[in-house]
Amino acid sequence: MPIIVNVDVMLAKRKMQSKELAEILGITPANLSILKTGKAKGIRFETLEAICKALDCQPGDVLEYVSE
Questions:
Q1: Domain 3-65 has CATH 3.20.20.70
Q2: Domain ranges within the chain, ordered by starting residue
Q3: Is pTM beyond 0.70 here?
Q4: pLDDT tens, position by position, 18-48
């Protein structure tokens, strides 16, 4: 898949655990895991905004395009 999700990278930079981010976002750890592994078919802008707010980052820090 040409879209790479870098939530793990941002979590490491912010020294935050997935469980903590899931609680902040109001989603289950399982749903966050689906997003982190790139298995999600899409992401709502509302969720992306919440991730960026929680991790103090930009959407480009979380999502990356890599040509195949």
A1: no
A2: 3-65
A3: yes
A4: 999 999 999 999 999 999 998 999 999 999 9
